[in-house]
Structures are given as structure tokens and as C-alpha cells.
Amino acid sequence: MIVCVEFDLRLLHWFKCFMSDDDDLHMYVQLVAYGHNFEWARVSVYQ
Prior knowledge:
Elements: E1 2-8, E2 13-19, H1 23-35, E3 40-46
Antiparallel strand pairs: 1-2, 1-3
């Protein structure tokens, strides 16, 4: 399964895909979600 995370920050549009069992996925989501004041976020999951 592939998880793609997309954030729209004030000055940064950020998009990255990870395998669902990738530890980096959780680290990036926490870092971006809690470290920035983002306008919106979208998570897409692909089998």
C-alpha cells in the first residue's frame, strides 16, 4: 500500500509518497503537521 501526503503551507506546497510501512511516513507527517501552520492537508491511499 502506498500513502501520499500533500500539505499546502503558506509558502510551501509539499507532496511526498511513502510505502505504508515506512517509518519515514510517520515522522514526516508528525513533523509537517505539528511543526507548521498549514492551510490544508490531504492524504491519499493507493492499494
